[in-house]
Amino acid sequence: MNKDKKDKQPQRELGTGADGCSRFNGKLDKLCLMLEKIRFEEYIDQLNNPRKMFWKSFAAGIVRGFGMAVGFSILGALMLSLLTRLAADNIPLIGNFISEILKFINQGK
């Protein structure tokens, strides 16, 4: 039964005549605008120039590595400060453990 319904539905012609061309041109214009918005041409230029792509990736990697090092240092300093405060509070089990860790850290200085 479904097959009969499909056969009876009129087939839509794909872009014939002047109306079809104008719809196609409108969609093509939208596609061109979208590609310009995402700077597709610059992306293709970058892919065609491996040396430029290498240096951009290299610089991005250095910046990411520097950011991670700075972030880890800040987080480490905050954790050390927190551990020092917890050790000063003399919490029974945790305070002894933290004071051992702080002694170990201070021996390395």
Characterization of the model:
This protein is mainly α and 109 residues long. It folds into two domains: 34 residues; 60 residues. Helices cover 84% and strands 0% of the residues. The longest helix has 39 residues. The protein is elongated and about 85 Å long.
Write the layout of secondary structure elements.
Blueprint: H1 2-8, H2 17-37, H3 40-48, H4 50-88, H5 92-107
Helix pairs in contact: 4-5
Number of strands: 0
Helix content range: over 70%
- Provide the domain count: 2
Taken as a percent bin, the fraction of beta residues is: under 5%
Mean pLDDT: 80
Number of helices: 5
**What low-confidence regions span 5 or more consecutive residues with pLDDT below 50?**
none
Distance between the termini: 85 Å
Order of helices and strands: HHHHH
Specify the structural class. Answer: mainly alpha
User: What shape does the CA trace take?
Assistant: elongated
Please outline the major beta sheet. none
Radius of gyration: 33 Å
Summarize the structure.
By secondary structure, the protein is mostly helical.
Essential attributes:
single chain, 109 residues, mainly alpha, 5 helices
